[in-house]
Amino acid sequence: MNAPLVAHDALRRFIEEAFVSAGLPAADAAQVAALMAEADLQGSDGHGVIRLPQYMKRLRAGGINKHPDIRVVQERAAMAVVDGDNGMGHLVVTRAVDIAIEKARSAGVAWVSTRYSNHAGPASLYARRPLQHDMLGLYFAVGNANHLPPWGGMEMLLSTNPISAGVPAGEEPPVVLDMATTVAAYGKVKALAKRGEQMPPGWMIDRNGQPLLDPQRAAEGFLVPIGGHKGYGLALIVGLLAGTLGGAAMGREVIDFNADHVSVTNTGQAILVIDLAAFGDPAQFKAAVDTLVRDIRTSERLPGVERIWLPGEQSHEKRQRHAREGIALMPVLLDELNTLAVDLGIAPLRIGTGA
């Protein structure tokens, strides 16, 4: 497949121009665009520019507030609740993470919840943010559509409800876990549908419990939780922490933003930030992480296994490769983006890896 390559900066500028054209303030457009382009840079292609047409629909329909008053509505020394006023999720969650970082400087640890937020892209973007401050980040979110029934049930009352952790290292890349509580995130299903490819067995089942392989028929079935009933339990707990605790939507209250472009989603996320210095010498901790990472990477492998990967290593390598070689976009997605560009009155997305 010869997918067109786009330079990271060109992708970021295109997204930014699209949001400005749609009425987002310039500073907000730049911030959202940077995070969306970073998602594609690290290989999270189910949460990057592929989401732009959907965001545009919600902005145009009034489903997202273009000028939100993002504010703290409850606060103590080591916690806060941020009301996003139905703004772009990227803006709301970034504000929450920054508040958590500042609180963790003095309290050692901080938990910040969001309410009235929106879809904010891949969880790892926010778990990674504290790393530059010698802090550890744990991120939780309620997904923006329910695709998971309770174990043994039929009604989709839960979502993919992702969890991410960012752990700083010294000389090694940080350990960054980003996982849905389902076998596959729904964004990956959408990406396969866009490419015209089938899903692997085990991602989804139909209402008779049989494997569902066609992503175009995803509405006919359910995502499968990781680890069976254990994954269902984890999805429930993550939803309670990220949604219910902060006053955000959970269960039947969750709005399917794939189909509804008007209703307020009241999406909930939560970030836990831990300052390494509160527990000892950050350099000593990061050196210990380096040692463990190297022990795992060089440990004995099963026959046929070429390499043992640490969480986040493949994304780290993709960041480096995509920054150097460009980001591959599916031709069907590129056509959709350029059609959107005409509609918005902006220049089409520039192909190629040059500046």
List keywords for this structure.
355 residues; alpha+beta; Hypothetical Oxidoreductase Yiak, Chain: A, domain 1; Ribosomal Protein S8, Chain: A, domain 1; 2 domains; seven-stranded mixed β-sheet; three-stranded antiparallel β-sheet; 10 helices; 12 strands; 15% strand; globular
Secondary-structure map with pairings?
Elements: E1 5-6, H1 8-21, H2 26-41, H3 52-61, E2 71-76, E3 79-83, H4 89-107, E4 109-115, H5 124-128, E5 135-141, E6 163-167, E7 175-179, H6 186-195, E8 204-206, E9 211-212, E10 221-223, H7 229-244, E11 269-275, H8 282-297, H9 313-325, E12 327-328, H10 331-344
Parallel strand pairs: 3-4
Antiparallel strand pairs: 1-12, 2-3, 4-11, 5-6, 5-11, 6-7, 8-9, 8-10
Structure characterization notes:
37% of the residues lie in helices and 15% in strands. It starts with a strand and ends in an 11-residue tail after the last helix. α1 packs antiparallel against α2. The longest helix is centred in the first third of the chain and has 19 residues, at 89-107. α4 (89-107) links the parallel β3 (79-83) and β4. The mean pLDDT is 96. The chain has two domains: 1-61 and 326-355, Malate/L-lactate/L-sulpholactate dehydrogenase, four-helix barrel (Hypothetical Oxidoreductase Yiak, Chain: A, domain 1); 65-182 and 225-311, Malate/L-lactate/L-sulpholactate dehydrogenase, NADPH binding domain (Ribosomal Protein S8, Chain: A, domain 1, 2-Layer Sandwich), CATH 3.30.1370.60. The strands form three sheets. It has a seven-stranded mixed β-sheet with strand order 2-3-4-11-5-6-7, with helices on both faces. Strands 9-8-10 form a three-stranded antiparallel β-sheet, with no helix packed on it. It is built from ten helices and twelve strands. With 355 residues, the protein is an alpha+beta fold.
